[in-house]
């Protein structure tokens, strides 16, 4: 029987509980899984802290505590001094059986005082808790933090929501986390990713066919978009590779549109044209070589240009400036049934008008929006203010409201489609936080749409390839550097 971990799907705590139940119902006993989990924790601790002076296991009353009891028993067998502090397991449970294998008494949680050389194993609550920890736990968390004692968390640091990735109150900050079978949103959404430290995904013998979820939520990667990436053929010509248009702003703010246009060209669009207002044509001409221009001064000009069916996708918003004209242009694009990436001023133009935007793009999904946190809050204040929602929940609700693909940017960019599919991007470097990087992203996504990629897959690929270019650029990167390093993947 194939045993596996799932490195692509993300499992909410509720979805993982269903996986656990399916696995046990298939005939694999819960205590066997607990022993494997405890052994994985021990392997991580001994490889990471080979000179540990004392392992202190903080045990909760449930299965997370059971994993900790197994770890304590194994560590003692290996000659590591062990203490257990916490709560007795519930009678008759797998955790109680695990606790019985350990000779050390469970001392009161509040009695723990960190010593130099300690490594704490956090086996208190894991993903099973989605409320604030109590005062006793909070006090221990405070002492651990003050002492700088390293922590290895089992499943998730206690006090961190596995669903939202946000602390529910006082929270343990772990140097390492060991989780099993599949990652949870809390491992990759911020600030959970940082609170988990280095996360190890361990195989504890669950059958691969059972490590599955009905919730279409993934880590972003080639498994999502790889099969739909544009293929290069010997008979290709510039029009067969798609024509992207980027709408330029006025004279003073044309640089953002140029960044988008260059990114669209480098990602593989056969032609890229700036739709430039008359007063900015000469200024843009001084900067352009392979990128063309088309004079667009009004909605009528844009509609006439769109009579060319080869113009397949457009980017609207970077440095655009005129909010009323942005709304007019978006309506023209929607009526012409073109794919549109709406960013920056294009998003600001629809603050308080999301219903209008959603009505424009009813039917087949042809709209991608790329808001950062501030833009998202201006567009969707009611969604953003609901503290019960995760970033994934928020992106999904916004996508459904607009019939769009939402690229909710940040260190944990979420890509969500109106049909419920969603992905979290977890590997972009921090130096992407620089002026103009979002303009490059909109061009990358627009360039992929121009090449006829499906819209959700184009957004996922755009985010991943944008991050890959930034990783290549390295610290100190500017948006100009980033646009110059965008490349289509080899397929």
UniProtKB/TrEMBL annotation:
GO terms for molecular function: ADP-dependent NAD(P)H-hydrate dehydratase activity; ATP binding; kinase activity; metal ion binding; NAD(P)HX epimerase activity. SUPFAM superfamilies: Ribokinase-like, YjeF N-terminal domain-like. The keyword Kinase applies. Residues 16-212 form the YjeF N-terminal domain. InterPro entries: Carbohydrate_kinase_pred_CS (IPR017953), CARKD (IPR000631), Nnr (IPR030677), Ribokinase-like (IPR029056), YjeF_N_dom (IPR004443), YjeF_N_dom_sf (IPR036652). Binds 1 potassium ion per subunit. This is Bifunctional NAD(P)H-hydrate repair enzyme. It comes from Hoeflea marina. The lineage of its organism: Bacteria, Pseudomonadati, Pseudomonadota, Alphaproteobacteria, Hyphomicrobiales. The gene is nnrD.
């Amino acid at each position: 029987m194939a045993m596996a971990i799932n490195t692509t799907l993300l499992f909410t705590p509720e979805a993982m509980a269903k996986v656990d139940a399916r696995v046990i119902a298939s005939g694999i006993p819960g205590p066997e899984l607990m022993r494997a989990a405890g052994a994985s924790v021990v392997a991580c601790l001994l490889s990471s802290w080979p000179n540990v002076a004392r392992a202190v296991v903080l045990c909760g009353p449930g299965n997370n505590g059971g994993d900790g009891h197994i770890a304590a028993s194994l560590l003692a067998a290996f000659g590591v001094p062990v203490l257990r502090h916490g709560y007795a397991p519930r009678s008759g449970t797998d955790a109680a059986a695990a606790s019985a294998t350990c000779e050390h008494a469970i001392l009161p949680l509040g009695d723990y005082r960190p010593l130099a050389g300690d490594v704490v194993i956090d086996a208190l609550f894991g993903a099973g808790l989605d409320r604030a920890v109590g005062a006793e736990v909070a006090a221990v968390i405070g002492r651990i933090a003050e002492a700088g004692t390293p922590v290895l968390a089992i499943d998730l640091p206690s006090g961190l929501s596995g669903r939202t990735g946000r602390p529910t109150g006082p929270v343990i900050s772990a140097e390492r986390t060991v989780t099993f079978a599949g990652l949870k949103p809390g491992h990759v959404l911020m600030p959970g990713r940082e609170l988990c430290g280095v996360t190890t995904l361990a195989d504890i013998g669950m059958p691969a066919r059972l490590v599955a979820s009905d919730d279409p939520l993934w880590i972003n990667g080639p498994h999502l978009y790889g099969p739909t990436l544009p293929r290069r053929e010997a008979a290709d010509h510039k029009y067969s590779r798609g024509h992207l248009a980027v709408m330029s702003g006025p004279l003073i703010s044309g640089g953002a549109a140029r960044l988008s246009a260059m990114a669209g060209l480098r990602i593989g669009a056969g032609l890229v044209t700036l739709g430039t207002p008359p007063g900015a044509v000469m200024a843009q001409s001084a900067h352009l070589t392979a990128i063309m221009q088309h004079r667009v001064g009004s909605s009528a000009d844009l509609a006439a240009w769109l009579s060319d069916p080869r113009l397949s996708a457009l980017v609207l918003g970077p440095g655009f400036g005129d909010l009323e004209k942005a709304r007019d242009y978006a309506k023209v694009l929607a009526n012409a049934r073109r794919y549109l990436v709406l960013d920056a001023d294009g998003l600001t133009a629809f603050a308080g008008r999301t219903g209008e935007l959603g009505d424009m793009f009813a039917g087949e999904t042809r709209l991608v929006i790329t808001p950062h946190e501030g833009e998202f809050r201006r567009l969707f204040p009611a969604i953003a203010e609901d503290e019960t929602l995760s970033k994934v929940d928020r992106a999904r609700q916004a996508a459904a409201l607009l019939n769009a693909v939402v690229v909710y940017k940040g260190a944990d960019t979420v890509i969500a489609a109106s049909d419920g599919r969603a992905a979290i991007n977890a590997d972009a470097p921090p130096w992407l936080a620089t002026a103009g990087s979002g303009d490059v992203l909109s061009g990358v996504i627009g360039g992929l749409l121009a090449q006829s990629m499906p819209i959700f897959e184009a957004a996922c690929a755009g985010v991943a390839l944008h991050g890959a270019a930034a990783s290549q650029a390295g610290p100190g990167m500017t948006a100009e550097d980033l646009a110059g390093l965008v490349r289509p993947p080899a397929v």
